[in-house]
Model the fold of this input.
Amino acid sequence: MTEEQVKKATDHFANLVREQLERVERMKHEPDWTDFSSLDKIIIGACSGDGIGPAITEAAIIVLNFLLDSEIKSGKVEIRRIDGLTIENRVKVMKAIPDDVLAELKECHTILKGPTTTPWKGNKYGWPNIESANVSMRRELDLFANVRPVRVPEKNIDWMFYRENTEGAYVLGSKGVDVSDDLAVDFKVITNQGSERIIRAAFEYASKNNINKVTVVTKANVVKRTDGKFLAMAEQVAKEYPQVEWDDWYIDIMTAKLIDPARQSSFRVITAPNLYGDIITDEAAQIQGGLGTAGAANIGKRYSMFEAVHGSALKMVDEGREKYADPTSMIKAAAMLLNHIGYTDESAKLDRALDICSQYEKKMVVTGRDTGVTGEEMAKYIIETIKSPDLEQKWKGYQ
Ligand code: IPM
Ligand code: MN
Done:
């Protein structure tokens, strides 16, 4: 019996190792970065997801339609709706992303993605515990950099997180093994290629923006092989950026230092393997005002995807409140998308308007219920703010 279990588990492990070795080979032959300025037409896939996803995605589309009006009319940009990424459709085919939806996504140059429900064991909806669509999309489109900005001007906090997005504890997160009833084993994977590209992206960002500080977060003192590799890679990459200082922290103390008023504003660009990055970016978003305020970019060399950091809030839908869901995170994601594809002016204006509407002026507030405005009304408020001729002055007045 035991030997059989060992054999089964080791065979399983052998297959995973083969897959990962193949992935390493693929990473060695990555395509070049997409050059958006050379495209005749940029296709933005608007993938609405499920739960509150369709409602908040719609709000972001209203804003994009406004900002890209002439580009859309001239045919330079197309916003293409992709509606099939719902939990119902995924469960029907028992796949994280149905094949037809994945094919549609791959026809776009960049994607704006609403939240998608990630089933969990024993959920009350009776959904099978299939893999997260997020995790799958990041892997399928090789979106290795999860870039999450967090700013709290009054505390002098200006953080840019570069979370590794395609390996670490996630890549085999659904491929662990139940060796016996008593023993479960999961696997964590770190590669030179995977670490190098994310760490380099963090250093590049720092050096391009004249930021003199990169912080690398691991638990290399305990998780010696994988985190050790990530940290060793950081040491190597850092040598190519002598003008950028760097330091490294362990994840436990890092979570403490992010809320330490004496230390928090000294962090600027932070890079970490997948799970640690997941955890500290939620913490950081909370410091900024909550997950609803955070947007995230998932960037690969060929594809990119921009999304809200939070989930699909099924409870709101169950209670019929989805139209009151806060679309700020999706609109912030849209601003990051615009910046990524080269519409930097439009992106900057949208950022300013978002700051004014949701942090300072607050003429309208979304509360998640009918005590506040709807996401659509919020989108319109943001558009009116963008239109104001003294947008920049207005914003400066609040600084
Ligand atoms: C995030 C989310 C996802 C993650 C979930 C939904 C799988 O928490 O984008 O941070 O853990 O990466
Ligand atoms: Mn998360």
